[in-house]
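Q: How do we represent a protein-ligand complex in a form that can be generated token by token?
A: Start from the inputs.
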Amino acid sequence: MDSRTHEITIELTCPACKGGGTFPTWDCIDGNADPALRQRVLTDQTLFFYECPHCHSQVHIESPCLYIDKKNKWMVWHIPDPKATVTAADVCAFLGADSFADYTCRAALTWGEWREKIIEMESGVDDRLYEIIKYGAYRLIKEEDKKLLPLDAYHVDYADEKRTVTELALVFLRKDKKGSGYTYPITPKIIEVTTDIFMPVLQRLPDMNGKGKFNRFGYAWAANLMEYILKAAAGGEQNSNAYNQLIGFWVQQLGKEIFHAAIEPEK
Ligand SMILES: [Zn+2]
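Then emit the structure tokens for the protein with zinc ion bound:
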């Protein structure tokens, strides 16, 4: 298969000792054509670390990189600049003449978010449903536990070491103990319930389903979406009461399926 993977070399100055150096990396990774590199993206935490040859400082390199899955027609662009916007036309210019208009496109700000999004996309479930579940589950955590399990270390990952692409979990990492945390599998049932409740909303919203547009669907997006839905439900629409009940049902299901806990519906 014709691989789109493309290597680059970045010239850099060490922030600690100001010594110069070079860092070989990629600005495009073709997951289907390079399975070994895909594996490294998903498992090797040192992949984007530079070690200074002068003072041996470890430097985390954030540079743009497009991950592409041609077989399943999606891509995730790591774009460290939050103000940068990109389109399918930019991809065409970047990759050559092929058309990518029918690809599902996502953007990520950090390498962690990028890897998480690749894992979500590979599962075959709409990644936005994971983000909604992720948001809802974090809301169910007690305030005192949130201090120990910070949002920036909370993510979707494989449920276990087997790394089955269809078995994902919510992972909460502890702030006080590096590498330790809690894993809660995302069950088929909660995916089904979340699909039933939220997919009709997502399908109705403009700018939410466009192909060839790089959207950043993460925790903040899910928070905004939920605020929008609750406002609309409170706004006295005819079926608002029914929708409130539906959201209450979803929260109960989240508690049951993710945390195996009974959640009392909010008044
Ligand atoms: Zn250095």
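The first helix runs from residue 35 to 43. The chain is about 40% helix and 20% strand.
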